[in-house]
Design goal:
This protein has 477 residues and is an alpha/beta fold. It has 15 helices and 15 strands. The protein has 3 domains: 280 residues, 3-Layer(aba) Sandwich (Rossmann fold); 102 residues; 57 residues. The two termini are 40 Å apart. About 1% of the residues have low confidence.
């Protein structure tokens, strides 16, 4: 089955056909580094990381670029408030960004171009637009003339005339139209600036992404991705200035993830419901955050709440616990002969293919995880049988292998490496089982039962068999 993704540009699911066979160029809009990124920003970082990994899993060579906007009004404002340079603010939060995405298990991009390092390329692109008559200079500012680009609105579906009639009174009367946007801004006193043909100034936000994308991936790329809030005006303006300069398509596929609300409301500092990803990760394991986002289709809106995050935690525990119990069962079996089980093995392969089909269909991680939960259910049915046959061990090994394979792009099994890992606790549990055995031999039933009950409270369930006592971890209620 071919991979199909919903293309905002075509407004339908398109088959993914890269410019070069088996190679994909992908640009994702990164952070403006003026603060710790909030939990809503974490969503595109996580889902496009997982999608990039999935493309690699499916055999593509992916060149992945994420920009860092390190010159911006928000950065300058914070620098002035704190009495430091804009570069100090940008550097502080750039480092924080890298620290936080590492915790979230996000694989590093191939390149992280910074806006301040790409100024010469921006000036060159603006010069091309001015020479073509698509941009104009007013008192050192340079504006893009939207009316000169006939396809303006093709990404967002917005009509220029409707936008004009709905525009607020424009304070800058120097512009030919209220829709025209800044490519270059004259530096104000106290602001960072760069020399240009139009005087001292700095680039506009939109031109930064066009130049950084084209510098690393070429004039036409395969996939451009970001949040739905960037469709207009940011991505629309990127298209206009890029295609206006080159005459070539800028990006062939546009992917946009849905919005995130907090308890049903838009996140806002004024409402007191603004949370950074760093704050959330102090309360929940980073793998839980990944799971929270992957349990929902990336294009769907998502509601962040304590209840939903706990549901994600429980779902993750379900997979993690099953994997730990499978490892324990396989380790316990030791050299016992493993025999292939045709019937159930076919069911496992079916569930694996079902998950791949879901992922090929616009990267439906929610559907794929449903298949993984089916695999977990099959594993638990086998584990609950007690004495395991060779065919049972084969099926458990295949389930383990399949889930580990999918974790190459889901990136959620790190949760089992937390302090709750039963594998790390195994020697202590085995010691308690041995003590309990001796207590039972001494007919001290009450104390033996207390050990069993206390372990159960901790999520460890014992099963007494004629030859030995086994254990596994189960979910807490």
């Amino acid at each position: 089955m071919a991979i199909r993704i919903y293309n905002t540009l075509s407004r339908k699911k398109d088959e993914l056909k890269p410019l070069e066979p088996n190679k994909i160029s992908m640009y994702v809009c990164g952070p403006t580094v003026y603060d710790y990124f909030h939990v809503g920003n974490a969503r595109p970082f996580v889902v496009y990381d997982a999608f990039r990994r999935y493309l690699t899993y499916r055999g593509f060579e992916v060149k992945y670029v994420m920009n860092l906007t390190d010159v911006d009004d928000k950065i300058i404002k914070k620098a002035n408030e704190q009495g430091v340079s804009a570069s100090e603010i940008a550097e502080k939060y750039t480092q924080a960004f890298f620290e936080d995405i590492e915790k979230l298990g996000i694989k590093k991009a191939d390149y992280y171009p910074r806006a301040t390092e790409s100024i010469p390329g921006m000036i060159k692109l603006i010069e091309i637009l001015v020479d073509k008559g698509i941009a104009y200079v007013v008192d050192g500012d340079v504006f893009y003339e939207v009316a000169k680009f006939k396809d303006y609105g093709k990404l967002s579906g917005k009509n220029i005339e409707d936008l004009k009639s709905g525009a607020r009174i424009e304070v800058d009367e120097r512009k030919k139209s209220p829709l025209d946007f800044a490519l270059w801004k004259v530096a104000k006193p106290g602001e960072p600036y760069w020399e240009s043909p139009w005087g001292k100034g700095r680039p506009g936000w939109h031109i930064e992404c066009s130049v950084m994308s084209m510098s690393y991936l070429g004039e036409t790329i395969d996939i451009h991705a970001g949040g739905s809030d960037l469709i207009f005006p940011h991505h629309e303006n990127e298209i206009a200035q890029s295609e206006g300069a080159t005459g070539k398509p800028f990006a062939r596929y546009w992917m946009h993830n849905g919005f995130l609300n907090i308890e049903g409301e838009k996140m806002s500092k004024s409402l007191g419901n603004f949370f950074t990803a760093r704050e959330i990760m102090k309360k929940y394991h980073p793998a839980v955050i990944r799971m929270f986002f992957l349990l929902k289709h990336y294009r769907s809106p998502i509601n962040f709440s304590e209840e939903r995050i706990r549901e994600a935690q429980q779902a993750l525990q379900r997979i993690s616990t099953a994997m730990e119990n499978i490892k324990l069962a396989l380790n316990e079996a030791g050299a016992k002969k493993i025999e292939k089980n045709g019937e159930l093995s076919e069911a496992i392969q079916h569930l694996k293919q079902q998950a791949i089909d879901e992922l090929d269909d616009d990267f439906n991680t929610a559907g794929a995880l449903a298949s993984i939960f089916d695999l977990v259910r099959e594993a638990n049915l086998i584990l609950n049988k007690g004495a395991l046959a060779g065919t049972d061990l084969y099926d458990l090994s295949q389930i383990k292998k399949t889930i580990e394979e999918f974790d190459q792009f889901l990136g959620i099994l790190s949760y089992s490496e937390s302090k709750e890992s039963s594998v790390a606790e195994a020697p202590l549990i085995e010691l308690l089982i041995d003590v309990r055995k001796k207590l039972r031999e001494a007919k001290q039933w009450a104390l033996a039962d207390e050990i069993r009950d206390q372990l159960l409270e901790l999520g460890i369930e014992l099963k007494d068999r004629p030859d030995k006592t086994t254990w596994h971890r189960r979910l807490k209620s």
